[in-house]
User: Which sequence fits this backbone?
């Protein structure tokens, strides 16, 4: 992950976790989602079946705050982000999620909250999962 052309975070095998914080999310939401991310069985075992978690594979998580995940496109052509938490509320929840994921035993690399980041991703699979509290 780059900010202003400088590498600020990187991981090997694991997950790129894009986190959108909604205005009604709370600290409990962060903990529940971190537990789910750490234990979700989305990595293949020796037989090619999804049977292993991030914790079991000793993978890492690159966690990126991404308010645009909360885009509402129901009206018109310009997305509304009115349900995304304001930055002063979202940043502590982002930190709580990262901390809770570390408490689950996952090595966490973080983006810079609010920064324009260039995220480079090699998606093996591909597997993309949406988790909602």
Assistant:
């Amino acid at each position: 992950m780059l900010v202003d052309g400088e590498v600020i975070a990187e991981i090997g095998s694991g997950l790129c976790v894009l986190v959108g914080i909604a205005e009604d999310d709370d600290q409990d939401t962060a903990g529940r989602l971190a537990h789910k991310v750490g234990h979700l069985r989305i990595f293949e075992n020796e037989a090619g079946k999804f049977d292993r978690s991030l914790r079991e594979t000793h993978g890492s998580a690159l966690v990126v705050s991404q308010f645009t995940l909360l885009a509402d496109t129901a009206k018109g052509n310009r997305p509304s982000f009115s349900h995304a938490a304001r930055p002063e509320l979202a940043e502590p929840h982002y930190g709580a999620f990262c901390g809770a994921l570390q408490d689950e035993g996952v090595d966490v690399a973080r983006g810079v909250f609010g920064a324009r980041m260039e995220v480079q991703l090699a998606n093996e699979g591909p597997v993309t999962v949406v988790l909602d509290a």
